[in-house]
Amino acid sequence: MEGCVLPENLIFEVLSRLPVKTITRCKCVCKKWRDLVSDTYFVHLHLSRSPPCLMFHWYLPILDRILELVEVEHEAEYDRLTLHHVKTLNLQLSAFRASNGIIQVGSVNGLICLCHTFDATYVFNPVLEEYMTLPRPPRLRNITLLGHGFGVSMAGEYKVIRTLGRSISQVPIEVSVEIQVYTFGTDQWRSLGPTPFNITHPGEVGGVFVNSHVYWVIFGQIFDFDLDAETFELNPSPPGYDTESKRMLGVLKGSCLSLFSWTSLGFTVWVMKGESWYKAIAMIEENMDPVLKSLEWKPVYLIDGSDGTSILIFWPQGTDSLEADCLDTNKILDLNLPGNFWTVMSTYRPSFVKLQNFGSFRVHSLYGNDSAFVKDRYKSSLKLERMHQTSFHV
Fold this sequence. Notes:
With 394 residues, the chain is mainly beta.
């Protein structure tokens, strides 16, 4: 009917269920729709419905710093993982010109945190193509960087955490743990001082964010930083846990901290509910797939599959591709995805959360306004488009 105007709540309901690419196009329809997509209510509504994606670095000779965002579909009846392309970012063409020293810290509510060791830290939203640079943390003498974390507290404060090690002895390399925290909107790093823990330095460890906590596993011990209380504690290990096994933290069953441990004799998946661990999956050597039994592989990431299953994505040594195993059924899944020893994955959920909301004066366009950026980005997109046609569904 002529002159008919849809009510805003109906527009919100429709737009919030559309793919990000479609919503971005809808912003160009008219000023009203652009304003609606920027509305705080819509941002939260869309985020609550935004499907989880995988975010991973792709290290390739011609494309050094590629960050891929894909949706994952587990087709259990075909023993297959199908990847649907969401967005590709060439970080070398971004305004902060990511170099080979960049580290993927993590992603929360559509915001991605990257950093250079003992240098700049960046947070960006790939949907809105904007980023901000955090101030450089103060340099401290006799300090080693142990790891990073990124998360949001129950109070809604976004924080980046740095775990530092102050040297105690050289043989073995033992350090005392200290914590630095950056809270969005404050424009400064805060030192929380020393913790009561001394550890043998394992090299840099990435943190896993779960429900206002960031966790690290270091030499078989699980450490927990509470983003609200800002405390660093030793978390209880699962009962009967084999400290000699290799291990990796992840998130399964929607939003539960999980621990994947393995040896040549088998593997176990532990899931934390409340404050207790329970054994979700246990596989003995006789039933393991020959590829996993060999131990000539590196775990990359844990994800939820269909029907409550759990999937391990891993890299078989000596190959240039990743593979996936449904841990519940012990079946290798068809996965057409390049990868290598340095491939890093984490979960990403597309959103329209604006960095300006945090009152930062450091927000910039991810690709800048320089025509050279635009030209280089266009050339890169053509290469990536050809690559997608042979790698996964676009």
